[in-house]
């Protein structure tokens, strides 16, 4: 028997669910409504249109075969009826009606449904600041925003830009302004790092340093008090600590799920917004489904609630909903939380929990950091990659991996491998022995991911006792106390510049000479071992342990991590 499916929302999940269902039930009717005139676009591509990487905004709304996904396309190619500029105002669950209103004419009407899909998405978080309505102040939401932002830059109207928020969109827009257009760009962030809650302070600092090297300034721990302008156009941003001149402002303070219509209909909604769904993407009304940026899903690691506004998840959920509308039983179990963000020639990526998030969730966890080449050491295009793993102590369960590296596919490939495994609660040995494709142009024989898990294993066994570069900085900043004895385990040519700069504190005993020079190492001080990446210093730590010297700290990531972190030795 044919059905009438109504879909509220036409950006990501809505079109996917509608089209999947129509393929399974061509004889049924699907009506998709959206309050905008722009539908089915790739919102995550907006910063790359602003930067010029995407040449034409219409590409954000096109198929791979260059057809624009407009109402005519959906009707003729997909068999889906689309009503744009139509806002859903109320859901009558008893009568199975959606009340709608034309946003231009105010004309009202109703649409009956057999089953309903709520795909209302999320909206940019408004901060309620004075001056948010000034010309030149923008949110990054749809292709119209992208066109307006890029036109203002290309006209030469923007010399200085201020980005509010150092999350995904904030960093991507900062790169777009600074890289392509040479705009003097500043980022204001209320937290004390970029990508707060998503990466550790160490990885965040590495990413921040790289962006600063490319002309982006950061101001952390500051709140924006107001946005000011002249003649209706923005001219400055006032924070809790300074005034920043600005010809353009991007507000990227996160997004809020648009779930009010679901709440008003009596559907179960999170207290901060977001529709609750089960594993079949159903709400507490079996005839109403929801997904994408407007819903709450399960975090497969913490077993708690998760809000993950990503186009990739919305598309996967859309297929599941389409299947189930046609009588299927497809499941969406939940998420582990995976991401990647490009920052000039580098990127930050991660999956699962950071150490901070793991502890907040009640896990007794540690983290280890490793820097290693992303391919064979003899291959000419090798590059250093930094990975950090979070592990639960007692169970040895891997809770997450985050990384900082080049903007190519090498690092995100490792992150994706772990993301696929996290759903099955892997332990350290699972990653240590993970099978990965190998060839010198693509990986080392002992892949960095395997080596990272081996480092975690050694740390859990307490035979590699170390700290990351932030821990080294704390030790180095207190060097005048005389409590630490810093030993460079590299050969003399590598260590010599640091011996010359810090003759009182820096000492050089190559790892291979430890046994012969053991008497040079004091037993009444904490011995801090450093090498290029932390490998030889780990070997030195083992040798000192064997000789009974136990108060030893190995610097994970070595001088490579210290340099990326920005410690001045």
UniProtKB/TrEMBL annotation:
<dbReference type="InterPro" id="IPR036873">
    <property type="entry name" value="Rhodanese-like_dom_sf"/>
</dbReference>
<protein>
    <submittedName>
        <fullName>Pyridine nucleotide-disulfide oxidoreductase</fullName>
    </submittedName>
</protein>
<dbReference type="InterPro" id="IPR001763">
    <property type="entry name" value="Rhodanese-like_dom"/>
</dbReference>
<keyword id="KW-0676">Redox-active center</keyword>
<dbReference type="InterPro" id="IPR036188">
    <property type="entry name" value="FAD/NAD-bd_sf"/>
</dbReference>
<dbReference type="InterPro" id="IPR050260">
    <property type="entry name" value="FAD-bd_OxRdtase"/>
</dbReference>
<keyword id="KW-0560">Oxidoreductase</keyword>
<comment type="similarity">
    <text>Belongs to the class-III pyridine nucleotide-disulfide oxidoreductase family.</text>
</comment>
<dbReference type="InterPro" id="IPR004099">
    <property type="entry name" value="Pyr_nucl-diS_OxRdtase_dimer"/>
</dbReference>
<dbReference type="Pfam" id="PF02852">
    <property type="entry name" value="Pyr_redox_dim"/>
</dbReference>
<feature type="domain" description="Rhodanese">
    <location>
        <begin position="507"/>
        <end position="567"/>
    </location>
</feature>
<dbReference type="InterPro" id="IPR016156">
    <property type="entry name" value="FAD/NAD-linked_Rdtase_dimer_sf"/>
</dbReference>
<keyword id="KW-0274">FAD</keyword>
<dbReference type="InterPro" id="IPR023753">
    <property type="entry name" value="FAD/NAD-binding_dom"/>
</dbReference>
<keyword id="KW-0285">Flavoprotein</keyword>
<dbReference type="Pfam" id="PF00581">
    <property type="entry name" value="Rhodanese"/>
</dbReference>
<dbReference type="Pfam" id="PF07992">
    <property type="entry name" value="Pyr_redox_2"/>
</dbReference>
């Amino acid at each position: 028997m044919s059905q009438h499916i109504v879909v509220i929302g036409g950006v990501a999940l809505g079109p996917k669910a509608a089209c999947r269902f129509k393929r399974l039930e061509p004889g049924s009717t699907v009506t998709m409504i959206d309050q905008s005139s722009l539908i089915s676009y790739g919102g995550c591509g907006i910063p790359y249109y602003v930067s010029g990487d995407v040449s034409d905004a219409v590409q954000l709304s096109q198929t791979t075969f260059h057809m624009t996904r407009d109402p005519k396309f959906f009707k003729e190619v997909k068999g889906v009826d689309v009503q744009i500029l139509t806002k859903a105002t109320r859901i009558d669950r008893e009568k199975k009606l959606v009340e709608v209103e034309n946003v231009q004419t105010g004309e009202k009407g109703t649409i009956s449904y057999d089953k309903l899909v709520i795909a209302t998405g999320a909206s940019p978080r408004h901060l309620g600041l004075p001056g948010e309505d000034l010309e030149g102040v923008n949110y990054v939401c749809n292709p119209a925003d992208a066109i307006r932002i890029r036109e203002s830059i290309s006209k030469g109207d923007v010399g200085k830009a201020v980005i509010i928020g150092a999350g995904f969109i904030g960093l991507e827009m900062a790169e777009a302004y600074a890289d392509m257009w040479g705009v003097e760009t500043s980022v204001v962030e209320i937290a004390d790092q970029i990508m707060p809650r998503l990466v550790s302070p160490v990885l965040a600092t590495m990413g921040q340093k790289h962006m600063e090297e490319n002309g982006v300034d950061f101001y952390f721990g500051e709140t924006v008090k107001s946005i000011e302008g002249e003649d209706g156009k923005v001219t400055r941003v006032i924070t809790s600590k300074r005034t920043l001149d600005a010809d353009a402002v991007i507000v990227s303070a996160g997004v809020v799920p648009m779930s009010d219509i679901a709440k008003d209909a009596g559907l179960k909604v999170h207290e901060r917004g977001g529709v609750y769904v089960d594993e079949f993407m159903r709400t507490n009304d079996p005839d109403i489904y929801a997904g994408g940026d407007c819903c709450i899903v399960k975090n497969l690691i913490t077993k708690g609630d998760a809000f993950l506004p990503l186009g990739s998840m919305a598309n996967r959920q859309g297929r599941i909903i389409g299947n189930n509308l046609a009588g299927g039983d497809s499941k969406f179990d939940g998420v582990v939380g995976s991401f990647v963000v490009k920052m000039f020639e580098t990127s930050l990526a991660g999956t699962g929990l950071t150490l901070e998030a793991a502890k907040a969730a009640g896990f007794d966890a540690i983290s280890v950091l490793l820097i290693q080449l992303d391919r064979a050491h003899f291959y000419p295009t090798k590059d250093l990659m930094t990975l950090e793993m979070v592990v639960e102590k007692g169970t040895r369960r891997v809770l997450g991996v985050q990384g900082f590296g080049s903007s190519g596919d090498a690092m995100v490939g490792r992150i994706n491998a772990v993301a696929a495994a996290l759903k099955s609660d892997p332990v350290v040995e699972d990653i240590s022995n993970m099978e990965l494709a190998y060839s010198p142009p693509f990986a080392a024989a002992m892949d960095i991911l395997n080596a990272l898990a081996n480092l975690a294993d050694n740390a859990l066994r307490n035979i590699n006792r170390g700290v990351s570069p932030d821990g080294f900085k704390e030790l180095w900043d207190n060097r005048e106390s005389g409590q630490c004895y810093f030993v460079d385990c590299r050969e003399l040519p590598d260590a010599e510049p640091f011996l010359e700069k810090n003759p009182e504190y820096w000492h050089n005993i190559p790892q291979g000479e430890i046994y012969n020079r053991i008497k040079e190492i004091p037993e009444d001080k904490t011995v801090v071992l450093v090498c290029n990446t932390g490998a030889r210093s780990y070997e030195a730590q083992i040798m000192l342990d064997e000789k009974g010297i136990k108060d030893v700290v190995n610097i994970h990531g070595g001088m490579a991590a210290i340099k990326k972190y920005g410690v001045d030795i």
